[in-house]
Structures are given as C-alpha cells and as structure tokens.
C-alpha cells in the first residue's frame, strides 16, 4: 500500500520508498525525498515563482530519462501552474513549485529541477544570467575554476556579482543577478563575455560549441541565456552514477580547487555545508546584489 503523507495540509502519496535509485551508493527513493525535504528552504527560494522543467529518472540514472516541460499526468489541481506560451503551443503551461507540498509531490516523481532565467509571467525577460562552463576532456572542473576566476573579475569590472556552483556533473555554472532585461540582450552580453575570455585565455577557453575545438579546454556556454533554455537549479540532485548535487560553492573553494574530486558534492554533504556556510547562492535573491548590464555594441560571429 502506498503511504500517504500530509504535507502543509496536502495529502501526498509517496511510493516505492525502498527502491534503490543510485546502485553505486545504495541511495534510495526515500533518501531522495529526505534530501529534498532537508534542502527545501534554499531550494524553494531559487525555484520561487519560476516555471519548472523536470528531468525524470524514475528507475534511476541507468534507466529511462525523459525531459518534460508540461505538467506531468496526474498533477494535483492544487499544484500551481503558469502559462508559458511556445511557438508550437500557445496554451502551454508549466509547474511552479511554490511550497514544501509541491516540492515533495515533484520529488516523488524522481526529478532534476531545471528553471529558465526569467520568472513566471515574464517570459524572455531575464533577471539572471548564467554561464555554463563545460570542460572538454582531459580538462576537468579544475580548468573550469581557472576560467571562472577570470570571468568573476571581468564581471566585477562591469559592476556585476557572480555566484558559482557545481553543475553536479563535470562542470560549473556561474549565475549573475540582474535587473529584468530582455533575454536577447543578456544573450548578446554573455556571448561577448565568452569571446573575451577566449581572446584572453586562448589555451583554456573556447566560446563555440564545435566538439573539434573543445578537447582540453573549457567551453563557456553562453546559450543558456536564450529564453527557451533552462539550467539545473541550485541544490537539485542530478541523474548521475552517484547522487551528486548542483552545489553552490564559495570563491575560496573555487580558487583552492586542485583536483576534480575537490568539487564533487553528494546529497549527504549538503546539510552540513548549509549549516556551516548558509546558502552560498543567496546573492541571487538579494536585491542589493542585482546588477545592470552595460551596453553591448556588438560581438564577433
């Protein structure tokens, strides 16, 4: 019998709690739910008022993975949704995870949480910029850290504050809180920044996606700022061999990184980090850190 749990007055059926989702570590679905309940405070702050896309992996990372933007079948009527018109479907809607009950309902589906760079009701008007640093083997997150430190200083020169987090896979994400800005303008600025990084660090950075250019270098993916794109949310679990987390990190940790293992964080690591450091991505939700993009005069192709 599927147990029913009462969360914020909502009855939620939590199924298959003993099912092992991460065989390498024995991490179960019940532990996935416990993890999301533990990090609910900061995670919900970053999901707040944003349409959510789900990468679902109900049989674990080794099973079927499927990405969905539409509300999953059986979504309760108390789960908030918001219109997100698309070219192929002007009536499309997406889930907004706006409280612990909605978070536990979604976590029971076994998901990664992904969000766009704009809030509900304001498609294509971004309030953050994201740079996805993706290392081409044999480069690792160590090389990503070197690129991230350059980007941090460059952003600061434009009066912008950057936060860093692991992707939960092999790379890093930098996020910058912004005044609401058209996504096209954010994309243009991000592209120019990636090009500048390549010019200053030609042996380390590449701004184009072509695989032939990427071995041993860090691809600074500026395309994440397109209105239709989404990025893994801070604190989301990832569908990897182990229950890795897209974990916010301090700039001291970035500067000190010497091996790829230095910036790998599992679900059990996050509560102690939050107790010690608080939310290292909190600047994204603090009005005093919000920046304004400088004018973009144009960028090379």
UniProtKB/TrEMBL annotation:
InterPro entries: LigD_pol_dom (IPR014145), MtLigD_Pol-like (IPR033649), NHEJ_LigD (IPR052171). One of its GO terms (molecular function) is ligase activity. Keywords: Ligase. Residues 28-281 form the DNA ligase D polymerase domain. Gene3D superfamilies: DNA primase, PRIM domain. Pfam families: LigD_Prim-Pol. This is ATP-dependent DNA ligase. It comes from Streptomyces subrutilus.
